[in-house]
Amino acid sequence: MSWFKRVKEGILTKTQDKKFTPDGLWYQCPECKSPQASKDFVANNWVCMTCDHHERIGSVEYFNLFFDEGKFTELDAHMISADPLEFVDSKPYPARIAEARKKSGLLDAARTAHGKMNGSKIVIACMDFSFVGGSMGTVVGEKIARAIDYGRENKIPVMVITKSGGARMQEAAFSLMQMAKTSAKLALLAQDGIPYISYLTDPTTGGVTASFAMLGDFNIAEPNALIGFAGPRVIRETIGKDLPKGFQRSEFLVEHGFVDFIVHRKEAKDKISNLLSMITDKKTRSKSDESAVTNA
Amino acid sequence: MMLLDFEKPIEELNEQLEKARLTHQKGKVDMSDTISQLEKKIESTRKTIYKELTGWQKVQLSRHPDRPYTLDYINGMTKNFVELHGDRNIGDDKAIVGGFAQLDNIPVMILGHQKGRNTKDRQFRNFGMANPEGYRKALRFMKLAEKFNRPIITLIDTPGASPGLEAEERGQGEAIARNLLEMSVLKVPVICIVIGEGASGGALGIGVGDRIAMLEYTWYSVISPESCSSILWRSWDYKEKAAEVLKLTSDDMLNNKLIDRVIKEPLGGAHNDPESMFKTLKTEIKKMIKELKDLSSEELISQRIEKFSEMGVYSEETV
């Protein structure tokens, strides 16, 4: 005979009376597995509240993060890729692009815009990993090149937020030459004495690392981002052994002298603004900035 | 001479020719008619084979073990070559060689990727795959040329930049990126020639110039056909197909306006007649130097940047 006697049989709560939990209300960190309310996680700039894991985000989120009140003017918003090589692997390249467009809601793997960051003008190019792995084809290269031109014409700092698997294979040598194009434009920007910030995020590899990502006056990385030229898989296969822990991560790059500092996403805007304020003259800042100085 | 698989018909004819010559030498039978006939046939067979080479066949030719490498070209085309070493930082990368030399009477800086001829040599040269210090060594040489106002000639022949632990630790990406930036604003003429393999960033790392040329049977792309095959089809068996879709041959590259010219090779490839290849290339390089020598630094730089800025195809229609 049992100690307790069940008075009613089974579960009696009706389905419609069950507590409603909509999808996406909770976020589970892939690193530390700790669950947290999505609302808090988003408010924390998509960074895990427990372990500071920086979740991958796109241009929409980064523009919101860096531009004052999330206000900006997009440049070349309608540029789309062509298919000069008529490239077909498992499917034709245009079909692949169409699919990526539908899935990501973006036209290509980078967006560029100008606006104000803490009151000072800046032009930002941001890569989107959700579009064919953030790969660089002509559109990405051309947009970044034009963003740099915009910075030169208007004498305002340029920042590129990198997040890419490298050059886009489907545009073959056209993709390769975007590395030369963007680097050449950065040489001109440097001659004009205009600051260039490379903001490196997870992951940044291949042809992007071997061009504009490594050419910043300041290379600034988010914590624990994978940054390298050859991908870890290729290196593992080449050397035939496992890679050391932390290899090609932001901290590794700081240690070897290729990144200036690591910044937490929530501090990025203020820290970069502060840095820029120390190296730009008033004339390269915006009007409102100058009036603020006079008033003070 | 090693023949490639698609050259098999020539191999058989060569054997017949060899036999005929032996018989003729023994002096018993006059074989001179057969010999000249066979020679003609070999020539025409070769012409037919070489008229319609596929992308993959050209890739094979670009990697032919007998093909001339950078030092062969330097020795074959120039005199008074003074080889320089080291990046003044961590060491001397053997996959990149270079120094000042004279092209007839024109003093130039000539440098390039260097591959090895036998197993030991190949390892010594790291298969022509440069490390970061190799790119920095190349940049040091180019800066020297700029300082002393000499044109720069780079010879590209690499299966890619070295992928490895040390290469990453020493900043492979940064080294290549720095070269792209610095080369685009060099004040002296820069002439880049793909003499074999032009694989990706490893090739482009010494490939930004006023004139970009490719020898006829070479390739230049963002990735090797093998790696492309393994990524897109998850197998190495589609390398022929990858070589086609990548449009990596010299003719394709010229059609796509990604290079400035194609330089003819002797029938059967550069290795078939290295002397005539050296002569042709030397003439072409001198021609290009002549085209560029009267341009001011500003003109050189702005035209060079303009050229790379125009590479790419896109559209700006509203969708």
Description:
The complex is a heterodimer of chains A (296) and B (319). Chain A folds into two domains: 1-55, no CATH class; 56-295, 2-enoyl-CoA Hydratase, Chain A, domain 1 (Alpha-Beta Complex), CATH 3.90.226.10. The longest helix of chain A is centred in the middle third of the chain and has 20 residues, at 172-191. Chain A has a seven-stranded mixed sheet, with helices on both faces. In chain A, strands 1-2 form a two-stranded antiparallel sheet. Mean pLDDT of chain A is 91; it is low at 284-296. Chain A contains nine helices and ten strands. By secondary structure, chain A is of the alpha/beta class. By secondary structure, chain B is of the alpha/beta class. In chain B, strands 1, 2, 3, 4, 5, 6, 7 and 8 form an eight-stranded mixed sheet that branches. In chain B, helix 3 (55-62) crosses helix 11 and helix 10 packs across helix 11. Chain B is globular. The model of chain B has no long low-confidence stretch (mean pLDDT 95). Chains A and B meet through strand 4, helix 4, helix 5 and helix 6 of A and helix 7, helix 8, helix 9, helix 10 and helix 14 of B. Strand 4 (80-81) of chain A pairs antiparallel with strand 9 of chain B, so a sheet runs across the interface.
* CATH hierarchy: architecture of the largest domain in chain A: Alpha-Beta Complex
Mean pLDDT of chain B equals 95
- Strand residues, percent of chain A: 15-25%
Can you count the helices of chain B?
A: 14
Quantity of strands of chain B, as a count: 9
N-to-C series of helices and strands of chain B: HHHHEEEHHEHHEHEEHHHEHHE
Structural class, from helix and strand content of chain A? alpha/beta
CATH third-level topology of the largest domain in chain B:
2-enoyl-CoA Hydratase, Chain A, domain 1
